[in-house]
Amino acid sequence: MPNKKSAEKRVKTAERNRLYNKHWTSMCKTAVKSVLKAAEAGDKEAARKVFDRAQSVIDKAVVKGVMHKNTAARRKELMARSLKAMNA
I need a labelling partner for 75 at 20 to 30 A (CA). Which of 2, 13, 34, 37 fits? Predict the structure, then answer.
């Protein structure tokens, strides 16, 4: 346990931020998985709908500082490629 009051505050802040980041990271991963699952199933309409939602979640995570913008771009490209392959 920390000895100084400021160190105690940092422990609390770090835990709060960890939970916040975990929440958004989990939402992003779930969104990507749902797009890939819909694309694998071959349901174009559902896949497109889930893809739009996933892009929104990922973009919000970037704005909140949870995910780096290049990581977000890579994940969105992965989803887009799966949709494109499904349509072909």
Answer: 13
Distance CA 78, CA 11 (A): 36
Tens digit of each residue's pLDDT (9 = 90 or more) over 31-72: 999 999 999 999 899 999 999 999 999 999 999 999 999 999
Give the whole-angstrom CA distance, residue 24 versus residue 62. Answer: 10
Which of 31-48 are b and which e, b meaning 16 or more Cβ less than 10 Å from the residue's Cβ?
bbebbbebbeeeeeeebb
Paired tokens of 16:
């709060």
Per-domain residue ranges of the chain: 5-87
**What CATH homologous superfamily does 5-87 map to?**
Ribosomal protein S20 (1.20.58.110)
Distance CA 3, CA 7 (A): 7
Is the pTM here over 0.85, yes or no? yes
- CA–CA gap between residue 7 and residue 64 (Å, rounded): 25
Residue with tokens 């609390």: 12
